[in-house]
Design a protein that fits this description.
Distance between the termini: 59 Å
Low-confidence stretches: 306-310
Helix content: 55-70%
Order of helices and strands: HHHHHHHEEHHHHHH
Mean pLDDT: 84
Radius of gyration: 22 Å
Structural class: mainly alpha
Shape: globular
Number of strands: 2
């Protein structure tokens, strides 16, 4: 029995035995559709999922920027789903039993320094220029260099980045038009370095005969383009090569760096809100902690009466 059929049985149970409303059922269906999509990308099914699978799913929610409350609700739906499968004999175990819920409260985003971002970008470009690399290795490295330059230049959501069309690498403009959440379009900046990296990668892609398709980052996946999970996995390899802790680096951390570094250099909060595609400025305000830290360090380091201690 496939995951979609198992989810339908679970939803039928909620309606029949618990009298769940249409809104409740719709919310559970959305949460389970997201979970099942994650399983499919990893080649798994609900009855073969492990605790590590569930933890990976929860970690992915955090990388996608879901609030702890939203991630906890989604995990609750997955817990109930797996408990149902186990009790009804559709699965040999309940993998969610050993998984803790996300901590409530709004954690501050991890922030990379400008130097750390530079090291990451340098490692990616060095990988693309290694003379001993095979054509496939060189293409993979050029793709990573392109992904990182675009992400740090634009602050795109990971889902927006991996689904860019090929036309994004051919534009002569200094901006990209991106369709984000709710099909809303916004303009994001495009640096010369990012544009050059995109053109170099596309030229290499087409030189290797991969001219079909409309995606800038084509892949053998359900969507036809690179998945978030594959990008995150490859990014950790580059991070290790740059001498950075792989467990502190994720695509979403690069989006945080984009926003934080703009604010550190005097950008207006509402401009950053627009660039990130946040509908509510309260979401963007989480980045203002970097300004607080900057002000503290300025007083500590520059004030004539400061002892230099925190």
């Amino acid at each position: 029995m496939n995951g979609a059929r198992q989810a339908s049985l679970f939803l039928d149970m909620l309606a029949a035995e618990r009298g769940a409303s249409k809104n409740t059922l719709d919310a559970y269906r959305r949460d389970l559709d997201d979970y099942l999509a994650y399983l499919r990308e990893g080649g798994a099914q609900p009855d073969t999922a492990s605790a590590a699978t569930i933890r990976g799913f929860v970690a992915g929610l955090e990388e996608r920027g879901l609030k702890a409350s939203s991630a906890a609700r989604r995990l609750s739906a997955v817990r109930q789903f797996h408990k149902f499968l186990y009790v009804e004999g559709h699965a040999p175990a309940d993998p969610t039993a050993a998984v803790s819920a996300p901590k409530r409260g709004r954690a501050l985003p991890k922030v990379l320094s400008v130097d750390q971002v530079d090291r990451l970008l340098q490692a990616a470009h060095e990988g693309a220029s290694r003379p001993e690399a095979s054509p496939a290795e060189r293409l993979r490295a050029a793709r990573m260099a392109c992904l990182l330059e675009l992400l740090y230049a634009t602050g795109l959501r990971v889902s927006e980045l991996v689904s860019l069309p090929r036309s994004a690498a051919k534009t002569r403009d200094r901006f990209l038009v991106v369709r984000g959440k709710g099909a809303k379009e916004r303009l994001v900046p495009l640096t010369d370095v990012a544009r050059d990296a995109a053109r170099a990668y596309l030229a290499l892609l087409e030189a290797q005969g991969k001219t079909a398709g409309s995606w800038l980052f084509p892949a053998d996946s359900e969507t036809g383009h690179l998945t978030r999970q594959a990008f995150a996995r490859d990014l950790k390899v580059v991070a290790s090569g740059a001498g950075l802790r792989a467990d502190t680096i994720s695509p979403h951390v690069l989006r945080h760096a984009f926003a934080s570094h703009l604010l550190q250099n005097g950008a207006d909060l509402r401009i950053v809100q627009e660039l990130l595609g946040h509908s509510d400025i309260s979401t963007t305000q989480i980045y203002t902690h970097v300004l607080d830290e900057r002000l503290k360090s300025m007083v500590r380091d520059l004030h004539p009466l400061s002892s230099g201690e925190g």
